[in-house]
Structure formats: structure tokens, C-alpha cells
Amino acid sequence: MATLRNSKSPVSFYLQLAIAMWTFSYTVLATMMKDLQILDQLLKKGYDRRATPTNHLNNSVPTLVLCELFVRSFGSPNPLTMDYKVDLYLRQKWKDERLKSDELTKPLDLNDPNLVKAIWKPEVYFPNAKEADFQFVTVPNVLVRINPDGVILYMLRLRVTFSCMMDLSKFPLDRQTCTMEVASFSKTVEELILAWKEDNPVTTGNLGMSQFELVAIMTDRCQESFQIGNYSCLVAEFHLSRSLGFHLVQSYLPTILMVVISWVSFWMDVNSVPGRVTLGVTTLLTVSSKATNIQENLPQASYVKAIDVWMGTCTAFVFLALLEFTVVNYLWRKECCRNFRRARAYSPDAITKDLMDGQDNDKPPSPSDTLVKLNTKKEEGSITNHLEAHFVQGSGPHHQLTRTMLGPGEHPTISIEGMNRLDANHSKRSSFSWQTQARNIDETCRYAFPLSFLVFNLIYWPYYLLT
């Protein structure tokens, strides 16, 4: 008998546990049903959902509604459309004496749309909203909590697109202030007053915006005035600072490299015309193309933006580098053309005299002295006298002059170095040289351009970042 009693004891335990759970569930369900029945009785007992909770006081006291926002997601403002998208919870709290009952044992949570429609709710809207959607997945995201003391909490989940009028004068080093406005739609300030919750009225989740960082959130109260009356409203300001990482990598660093590459032409020889022209034109087209791509993602604003100042200055530096080569090349060719015209005007006797007068008797010729040939054609006969002047490095400072014969049809040849040697005595009388000036311009630009660009950066970055 003892063994049989012990075998039945587990069955008895589980049976008692099931009876206890059923009793508890029945009690909870009965209590909930009782609360719902109490709510139904309150709604049927002369409750008018069109009247405000203080309407029975002859509108002498407006209904106070405390509002709270919880921003779950915050999209980066779009400069083209001037708006941003958020996913938020709107919580509103007020007191309705008509739903106060001591018979309610605990707060009653309702999400039935039919029951929600049966009670009075503040008719609010978002004045600066472009689009708004109510969340229905997987059920309508709405909740009404009725407390025994008559305090009602009304919560909605919405997806809203707010307008944000941005000032892009400092783009992409700008800071923007975007707002969320909540206002009464049909009730004036004599019937409804909106106010922010005292502690942390606007909270956010873990926001991860790609282009902005949230700096601060400020809340304030406002009032909208229309011809039919004044309406209470609330405003939440989101202070945003644009992240510079994307634009630093995609815009600033490439253009800096293009400007620096354009300075390479200052270190190239003046005679390297194809190389210097190709380098200048390529860098100029690259910077211009980059500026065009940046403007495609921005609105057509009538004012100058910070990125416009940067791209315009970089384009100017590259263009000036190309223009500098044009000037230097012109001066270099001007010197060569002057020597060529002067050499053609010389007669053989004048050349001989210039060679002898230009040679320093106290100093032997340098190894760089080159051969000068000049042919003079006689008006009579087919034989042309040819004068060869050789500067011979050796024992004495003398010129060996030989005369050879050229046949008809042969043309004189004059080297550039030889023409410069022929002009030695003129160089003594005048030390100015266009080629020397061209080289000096190149050497000056090697330091003037980087220094000017550095000064521009020292002015640009503090002005747009600190002001």
C-alpha cells in the first residue's frame, strides 16, 4: 500500500499544479474581462469622444497633452530634395476624468482599432512633414494605455519624411539644423495645449548616419497663428554636423594631388614642349571633370559654396601653371629668333671682326665653343665663298680661318650655339637675355606656387571650420 501511495504522488502533484494554473488564468481572464466591462460601461455612460476632457468646464481650462518622441532611425538629409526620413514613436499623455474608475485594478492596454476610435485623442499633425505612413506590420502599431486614475497614454509608430531647408554655403564643411514639428490641427489654444515631457522629451536609438553626426537635440514650444485662431505646437531641433571623411577622400585629396602634379612642369626643361603641354592640359581637364561630378549631386544654388571656392581655386592654380609655360616658351623662342635674325644680317667681315673682338685674349676658349658656318653668295659666278670660323682650344688664343669652296645649291648652316657666340660682344654691351628671364620665371614658380597654395589652405580651412 505504501508503494502504491508513493507511485500516485507525482500524478497528484502535476494535477494540483494544472488546477492552480487554470485557476490563475481564469482569475486573470476574469479580471481582464471585468476591466473591459468597466471600460465599456464608462464609454456608454454619456461619453462623447468629440469633446475634450475639459469640455465640461465650459472651455475655461484647456486640455494639457504631454508629448514625447523616440527616434528609432534617422536618415541623412538629402541636399537635392531638402528632406530626411525618420522612423519614430509618438507618445502622448493626458488625463481624462471621464475614464477614471476606482474599480480598475491595473492599467488597461488596448490595441484594438475599434476601441481606440471610441475614446477622445488629440488631433495632432506634423506641419513640416512631406509624407507619412502608419506602420501596419504585423499589426497596427498603436497602443492606448488607460490608468485607473484616468491618465491615458497614446502611442503610435510612424514613418515620416520631414522637410529640412539647408544652407549649403559651407558645404561640405557645413552644420545643419533639421526640425520636427508637432502641432494641433483642429483645436485652438483655448481647448488644447501641447507641451514637451519634462525629462528627455526626445530620445534616439543607436543612430548611424553615413554623412552626418548628431551633435545636440533642442526642444521648444511655439504657436501657429491663422485667421481662424492660434494653435499650439512643439518643435524639436536636431543639430547635425557633416562628416568630412567622404568628401576628404573623394574631393579634396584628388584635387590636391592634381594641383601638385601640375607643378612638375616647372622642373621640366623649357624645350620639353609636348611633355609640359600634355601635363598641363591633362591636369586641367581632370580638375574640371571632378568639379562637374560634384555639382551633379548638389542643387543649383545661386550662392557660392565652400566646395565651389575650393574647386575654383584648384582649377585656377592648374590653369596658371599652364599659362606660365606659355609665357616661358614664348620668351625662350623670342631669344632664339632674335639671334637668328641678327646672324643672317652679318657679313663675313663683320663675323670675323665679331669673333676676334668677342674673344678674350687673356683667356683661352672654352670647350663648349662650337663651329659657326656662314655662306655668302656672290652676285656673279657660281662659286660661293664659305667662311669657317673654328674656336680652337689649345696653345694660343688665335682663330684659324680657312676658306673653302661650296658648289651651287648648297645652303648655309648656322647652329643656335654659334649664333649665341656671334653675339658675344653684344652680350657685353647688354646683359639682358630672354632665355635667362624664362629660366628665372620657372625657378621662381617652383616656390611661389606651393607657397601660394599653402597660404590659401591656411585661410580656407579655419574660415569654414571655425566660423
TrEMBL record:
Signal peptide: none annotated. It is a multi-pass membrane protein. The keyword Transmembrane applies. Its main location: membrane. CDD domains: LGIC_TM_anion. The keyword Transmembrane helix applies. Residues 37-242 form the Neurotransmitter-gated ion-channel ligand-binding domain. It is found in: Cell membrane; Membrane. The chain crosses the membrane at residues 13-33, 251-268, 309-332, 447-466. Residues 252-461 form the Neurotransmitter-gated ion-channel transmembrane domain. It holds the Pfam family Neur_chan_LBD. Keywords: Cell membrane, Ion channel, Ion transport, Membrane, Signal, Transmembrane, Transmembrane helix, Transport. SUPFAM superfamilies: Neurotransmitter-gated ion-channel transmembrane pore, Nicotinic receptor ligand binding domain-like. InterPro entries: GABAA/Glycine_rcpt, Neur_chan_lig-bd, Neur_chan_lig-bd_sf, Neur_channel, Neuro-gated_channel_TM_sf, Neuro_actylchol_rec, Neurotrans-gated_channel_TM, Neurotransmitter_ion_chnl_CS. Belongs to the ligand-gated ion channel (TC 1.A.9) family. This is Uncharacterized protein. The lineage of its organism: Eukaryota, Metazoa, Ecdysozoa, Arthropoda, Hexapoda.
